[in-house]
Write a structure and sequence with these properties.
mainly alpha; two-stranded antiparallel sheet; 99 residues; 2 domains; 4 helices; 2 strands
């Protein structure tokens, strides 16, 4: 993999403006669009990757804390449903088979 982290091959997607698509990362400067190829992850040094990961962990911790404090029974039911769904995916089945 060269000097930087993230010098991955192009991510094969068209521009996607829906939440969860590549657009938020592109707006953050983490992806660049290569016409007729899709998106490519920018190169990051190990220090930049650590800084980015630290920021993400801090933000997600705050958001999770707020979700737990202010989530109602509808939110809790959706959380349990999502856990159940993930637990029954291919990876969940493999994990269960190992136990």
């Amino acid at each position: 993999m060269g000097e930087g982290i993230g010098s991955a091959e192009a991510i094969r997607h068209k521009p996607d403006h829906r939440a969860g698509g590549p657009e938020p990362a592109r707006c953050e400067g983490l992806l660049v669009y290569v016409p007729q190829h899709g998106f490519r992850v920018i190169e990051l040094s190990l220090a930049e990757l650590r800084e980015l990961t630290d920021a993400r962990v801090r933000i997600e911790t705050l958001v999770l804390r707020d979700s737990l404090m202010f989530g109602d029974s509808t939110w809790e039911a959706a959380l349990v449903g999502a856990h159940h769904h993930l637990d029954h995916t291919h990876c969940g089945l493999m994990r269960t088979a190992r136990h």
